[in-house]
Amino acid sequence: MRAMSLNSSVGLDIGLDSIKVVALGRFSNRIRLIKFGEEKLIPTASSPEPTVAAMRRLFERLRIKNREVIIHLGGVGVRHIILNSPLLSTVELTEWICRQCLERVSPGLQLPQLICAYHIVQQTEQGLRLLAAYCQPQAVLETIRLIEAAGLQPVMVGAGELDMVNAFAFSSESFFKQTALFVDVRENKLILVGVENGSPVFQQSEIQKIVSSWKRHENAPIDRIVCIGDEAEVRMRQEVLPSEIPVEAGAPLKGLLRSGQQLPSRYSLAAGLALKKYFPLLNTIDLLPDEKKVWRQQQQEKQRALKIILAAGSCLLLILLALNLLQLVWTRQLEAAQEQVLQLETQIGAIEQVKKERLQLQQAFTDMQRLVTQRSQYARLLEALGQLMPKGVWLQEISCAPNEADRAGKKSIALSQLHLRGWAVDESKLALLLSQMENSSRLAEVKLISTKRLSAAEVWRQSHLRQIPLVEFMIVSLLK
To answer: What is the tens place of the pLDDT at every residue in 431-449?
Structure first.
């Protein structure tokens, strides 16, 4: 089994008769199917424990370590509507959509008692065309409690079968130029009426009724019918459907699977949920409560802070280890020099020559001792540079060397000339760095030696860490 990627995404589909999971991962900027599996359920009306136990068994059997899952609320009171709204700010638009949704439910409800999410289908100068989903918080919280009881953490809540479109439309530019019917043949229900003239339409009805009434409502012609479920295409041919409409079995994740790899169509919803992390198509339909979003954001900030602290601690530890290693090397060199002095005293007959060489070795010993005592200046230098770095500037290389006065013997052997080479987001960030270095009490004669703008591809070729255009620079300064 392939190991889970750090940038993995897990879609969890809890059905009436089984639980299905699909795990995707990003490897070298390519999304691949990692694992998928299914656990059958024994229908019970009194206790959620069998469902919780089945989720635990499924994740243990597939060895999925990522406990953050994307779930859905199909069949628990989620509603969908198409709205035409005026051009509003994000906050005003959210409030406007919630008010529109409230008009379709109990008039006694307040805005905080309804969870709304929307996806912008089309934007014109006159306004917006939206696909909105809404439900009451209790339905979401009950599902979340069920997921958390299994040791999992929901990070996004989809609106049910609507998310299944992700598994088919993520890589097709022509998908929204057609009208396609997605049908679950196991329940004889129409799940999604793909797109009509660029606008998604969501309905649930019997297949025969929706197909027979399609022309009567003067809708766009149906281009195809996509069937979901085992032996979908064979069973759909048994239905009373117009013979001129092409019928095909759904093939989720087409374009992402490796040669010879196949994902059964019954995993379409779980695959679409997992893709919500990577593709913008309908991923704004997220019914996760605001308090859960805030809590998750706080947890992510804590994790980022912890990673920064661990990285800084690791850097300091490496510096201390390097200094200790240098000290050990210098100590061994000194011991070897002392042994050489003893050998010279016994081998060389001329007393004056022996004294001269002894003085030279003692001077070398003194210089090395001075270097040992000055080893902390490297740590102070790195700390000072870290305080000077503005956001948007990274150092790629730091080097120190004696200046001309040092080489002439006018000063000690302390490193006094500093060379910096790195990247900046733009010239303004580089100018800010130069200004802060010139104002530093530890630096003098700050000079910008060269600058060069690199393309995003060149930055990726050099670093393999980021893919954005940057400015490469080199700065020379003296240490006071």
So the answer is: 999 999 999 888 888 999 9
Residue by residue, DSSP assigns 344-382 as HHHH---HHHHHHHHHHHHHHHHHHHHHHHTTHHHHHHH
Domains recognised in the chain with CATH numbers: 79-135 (3.30.1490), 172-253 (3.30.420), 303-373 (no CATH), 378-480 (3.30.70)
Taking each continuous run of H as one helix and of E as one strand, the counts in the chain are 13, 17
DSSP tag of 206:
B
Alpha helices in 174-267 (DSSP H): 207-214, 232-237
Q: What is the pLDDT of residues 44-87, one digit of tens each?
A: 656 788 889 999 999 999 999 999 999 988 655 778 777 888 88
Chain-centroid distance of CA 352 in Å reads 72
DSSP of 125-181: SS-EEEEEEEE-HHHHHHHHHHHHHTT-EEEEEE-GGGGGGHHHHTT-TTGGGS-EE
Closest by CA to 157, choosing from 145, 171, 175, is 145
Q: Residue holding tokens 């005293």? A: 345
- Dihedrals phi, psi of 442, to nearest 5 degrees: -100, -10
pTM of the model: 0.57
Q: Which candidate, 273, 269, 252, places its Cα nearest to that of 18?
A: 269
Place of tokens 């939206």: 130
Give me the pLDDT at residue 161, please.
67
Tokens, residue 64: 């999925």
